[in-house]
Design brief:
The chain is an alpha+beta fold. It has twelve helices and 15 strands. The longest helix is centred in the middle third of the chain and has 23 residues.
Length: about 400
C-alpha cells in the first residue's frame, strides 16, 4: 500500500515569490532481492562503466550430447540411422552406459569453426568434436598424436638429465593368459595392479625406474593362427611399454609375473618379453621418438570388427585408462602451452596468420566453444584444420622422420 502526502506551504508574502513543491508519493521498497545476474551486471557497470547490450545468437552454441537431450524421458534413440555405430551404441545403452553410447554415435558429427585473421573469407577451418571413447577409430589418431607429444617430452626430460651406469631403454610386454572369456573391468584393474607389483619387486624400488605402457587386446578375426586353432580369439589382455632403468633380469621378472598372476587370477601367465632399444646414447631424441611411435600404434589399431566385440571392449575399459606411467615417468606430464594457432595456409605461403576460433569467453579466462554441424561447415567452404596442416607440411618439403621419428 502506498499513501500520498500533501505538503502544505505557508501563505506567500506580498511581493515575494515562493517556490511550489509538487506533491510526491512514498512507496515501500521492493521485497525481493536482485537476482545474481542483475547483481553481476550492476557490479560490472560500477567498475567498468558502459552499458549492457543483448544480441541474438545466429546459431546454436550447444549441441546436445547427453541422453536427456537426444533421448528425452529416457526414450531409446533410433539407432538404425547411425549404422555400425548405432549397433554399438544400442549394446552400450543396454549395458547401462547411456552417456557413452550417445557420445559414440555423435562422434565427429559437429566441429568448432575458426577463420584466419588475414584472410577470413578464404582460410576457414574446423576441428571435429570427437567422442574420446576408448577404441574409437575416429578419435584414435588425435589421441595418439597428443600422447606422443606429451610423453615424448616426459621421457626426454628424464633421460637428458643423465643415463646412470647400467641403465638402458627397452621395449617390454606383459601378457595375461586367457581362455576366451569376456574381459571384465575388474580383470583390467587387476592386470595393471599385477604389473605394478612385478616392476617394483624386480627393480627393488618404486621410483628407481620409469615405465610407460598401454593396455591392449588381440585382433578379433586376424591372428597368428587360424581362427579354428585360436583359444582366446583376441581376448588376451596384454600391454606394450617403454622401460628406462637398470637392466632387467629376464628369469626373475618372468618368475615374478607367473607368481603374481597366479595369485590374482588363479592361473599363471608366462608372457614377458624385453627388447633393448639401440642408439640411446648417440641419439636419445630419435630413439625415444621411434619407441613411442611403435608403442602408441596400438592405441590406433582397431581390435574389433563386430559390434558385439567392440561394445564388450568399451565396457571392459569403462572407468579405466589404457595408458599408464610408473616411477620416473609418473606425474611429469607437462601442461599444455596456451598460444595462438597459426594458419597453415598462410604458413605455406610464408606469411604469418592466426586462426581464431569462435566461442563465448568467460570471466575466469575459460571459453565455451561454438559447435556447428560439420555438414553446414563443409557447405560454407570450411576444411579440417588437421588436413590443412598436413598439406602445408608436405608443401614445405618436411620429411616424415622429422615429425614422427625414424627407426634407429
Amino acid at each position: 500500500m502506498s499513501s500520498a502526502v500533501q505538503i502544505e506551504t505557508a501563505p506567500a508574502q506580498p511581493g515575494v515569490p515562493r517556490a511550489e513543491i509538487p506533491p510526491f508519493e512514498l512507496t515501500h521498497p521492493p521485497v525481493a532481492a536482485p537476482s545474481r545476474s542483475q547483481f553481476v551486471i550492476a557490479e560490472l557497470l560500477r567498475h567498468f562503466g558502459g552499458r549492457v547490450a543483448r544480441v541474438e545468437k545466429p546459431e546454436r552454441w550447444y549441441v546436445p550430447t547427453e541422453p536427456e537431450d537426444v533421448a528425452p524421458h529416457n526414450a531409446e534413440p533410433d539407432w538404425a540411422q547411425y549404422g555400425f555405430r548405432g549397433q554399438v551404441g544400442k549394446l552400450l545403452w543396454a549395458r547401462g552406459l547411456r552417456k557413452k553410447a550417445i557420445r559414440f554415435v555423435s562422434c565427429n558429427k559437429c566441429a568448432r569453426p575458426g577463420v584466419c585473421s588475414r584472410y577470413p573469407e578464404d582460410h576457414k577451418f574446423f576441428i571435429p568434436n570427437g567422442c574420446e571413447v576408448v577404441f574409437c577409430r575416429e578419435c584414435a589418431d588425435e589421441v595418439r598424436r597428443e600422447l606422443f607429444v606429451a610423453y615424448r617430452a616426459v621421457i626426454l626430460a628424464v633421460i637428458l638429465r643423465g643415463i646412470p651406469s647400467g641403465w638402458y631403454l627397452a621395449r617390454v610386454s606383459f601378457t595375461l593368459r586367457s581362455d576366451g572369456s569376456e574381459i571384465a573391468p575388474e580383470h583390467v584393474k587387476k592386470f595393471n595392479a599385477c604389473l605394478r607389483s612385478v616392476m617394483r619387486q624386480t627393480v627393488g624400488s618404486s621410483t628407481g625406474f620409469g615405465l610407460l605402457f598401454v593396455d591392449e587386446v588381440g585382433f578379433e578375426k586376424r591372428g597368428h593362427l587360424p581362427d579354428a586353432m585360436r583359444i582366446a580369439h583376441g581376448l588376451n589382455l596384454h600391454c606394450h611399454g617403454i622401460y628406462f632403468g637398470p637392466r632387467l633380469d629376464w628369469y626373475r621378472t618372468h618368475d615374478l609375473w607367473m607368481t603374481v598372476t597366479e595369485k590374482a587370477f588363479g592361473k599363471p601367465s608366462r608372457g614377458f618379453y624385453v627388447t633393448p632399444i639401440r642408439m640411446l646414447a648417440h641419439n636419445p631424441e630419435r630413439a625415444v621418438s621411434w619407441a613411442l611411435n611403435h608403442m602408441l600404434k596400438y592405441v590406433s589399431k582397431p581390435p574389433a570388427v563386430t559390434p558385439e566385440r567392440l561394445a564388450s571392449l568399451i565396457a571392459a575399459f569403462d572407468g579405466a585408462r589404457r595408458v599408464h606411467s610408473l616411477g620416473l615417468f609418473y606425474g611429469k606430464k607437462p601442461e599444455r602451452e596456451k598460444r595462438d594457432c597459426p594458419c597453415p595456409k598462410c604458413k605455406a605461403l610464408g606469411i604469418l596468420g592466426v586462426v581464431g576460433f569462435e566461442g563465448r569467453v568467460l570471466v575466469n579466462g575459460g571459453c565455451i566453444p561454438r559447435v556447428v554441424p560439420i555438414q553446414n561447415l563443409l557447405a560454407r567452404g570450411y576444411v579440417p584444420l588437421r588436413e590443412a596442416g598436413r598439406s602445408a607440411i608436405l608443401s614445405m618439403g618436411l620429411a616424415r622422420e622429422e615429425s614422427w621419428g625414424a627407426s634407429p
